[in-house]
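Review form for a predicted model. The reviewer records the input and the model, then writes brief findings.
Reviewer: anonymous (R2)
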Amino acid sequence: MNMSDKYRIRIADAMLVRKLAGQGAVLIEGPKWCGKTTTAEQHAKSVVYMADNKKKHSYLQLAEIDPDALLDGEIPHLIDEWQVAPKLWDAVRFAVDHRKGVGHFILTRSAVPADTKEIVHTGTGRFAWLTMRPMTLWESGESNGRVSLQQLFAHPDRITATNDLSLKEIAFLICRGGWPQAVDMTDRNVALDQARHYYDAVVKQDISRVDGVNRRPERVKRLMRSYARHQGSQASLSVIRQDLLANDTHELKEETINTYIHALKKIFVIEEMEAWNPNLRSKSAIRTSNTRYFIDPSIATAALGLGPEDLMNDLNSFGLLFETLCVRDLRVFAGALDGEVYHYRDKSGLECDAVVHLRNGSYGLIEIKLGGEKLIEEAVVTLKTLSSQIDTERMKAPAFLLVLTAVGDFAYRRQDGVYVVPIGCLKD
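Model under review:
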C-alpha cells in the first residue's frame, strides 16, 4: 500500500488494517477534524462522501430509494459520514451478511445517530469499531518515542531516553491540541487558532445539529467553561449546575445540563473516563463516578480563553490540562495495545490518575505530574500505596508503576522500580 508522501502515519492505520482483515466492515468514529476521513482514504479503493454538498441531496434520495447503489465500488469501499443517511447502516449490514470474505466497507462518522442501541445490536459480528482521537505527541512528531508503553508492560530493568520538550513547549501543545491541520501549520498563532475555530463550530452549530435541538450558544459556552474547570474531576451535575447558575439568569435543571453534556458526547467533544474496580485487600469503597474530560485539552483552553502564557502563569490549571493531554495520548496508545484507560479513587481519597488495563488482565498504574522531585515523590507514594492494597491472589500485580511528567531531562527507572517518563519520550 502506497501512502501519500504528505500523509502522516497514524496509530489508527495499523489498527484499521487489522480490523479490516477480520470483519466485513469497520466503523471509524471520533470528533470532526481528527483525521478519520484522511486515514480511511489511505486504505479505501473507492469512496462516497455523504456530506458532499454538491451530491448530498442525490445521495439522500438514493439512500431512500436504492441504498445498494451507494455500496457499489472496489473494496474496501468508504462511505464517509454515513450517519447523514441512517438507512445505509442496514444496507451495509445486509451486504456484509451476503458477501463472502472480509474488508468490504469502511464507514466514518462524527456524530452518533439517535438509535445507538439498535445500531450496536445489529452490527454485532459484522462490524469492528475504531475510535479515532486527535493526534498524540508521538504521532505529531513532538515526542521522540524512545520509551514505549508496550515495553513497560514487560517491566524492563532499565530505560534510557532524553526529553527535548520544555514546559513552555508543553503549554503550547496543550493549547494547540492534536488537530492534524494545526499540527502541520508553521505559524504558531494560526495553529492556535484552529482549536478556537473548532470550539466556535461546536457552540454555534454542531451541538444543535446532532439531534435537531436548538441550544443557545451562550449557555453552551458557559457549560463548556464549567466543564473545562472540572477537567479530571468527578464533579456531579449539581456542582456544574451551581457553577452555571452564577452566570445564568434562567431556570436551569440538572436534566437540561445532562442533555447538553449528552449532545457533546454524541459529537465526541466529551469523553469521560470510567472508574477502575480492582480486587483489594482493604474494604475501602471504590468511587464509581466517571471522570470528566474533553477529548483534547485544546477544547478546554479554547472554552476558558487561555493561551500558552496563561498556563505558564497558572501552574494549577496547567497541571489539570496537562493531565487531559496525557489521558488523550494514553487512550490512543492503550487502544493500539487492545486496552482501556480507567481512573481510580476510593472513599479514603486515594486516587490514581490513570490505569491502563489490557484485555489479557495486565495493567499499569500511572500518576501524572508536571515534574519536579517533590511532585514525583508524592506520585510514587500514591502508586506504591495503591499497589500494596491490591489482592494479588485474586488478580495480577501491576505490570508497572509510572510517573508521567511534563518536564525532566531523562526517562529512567528508579531503584524502587518505579518508572519516571516525560510525555515527550512516550509512544505506544
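Findings: The radius of gyration is 22 Å.
Further findings: The first helix runs from residue 11 to 20.
Recommendation: see findings above.
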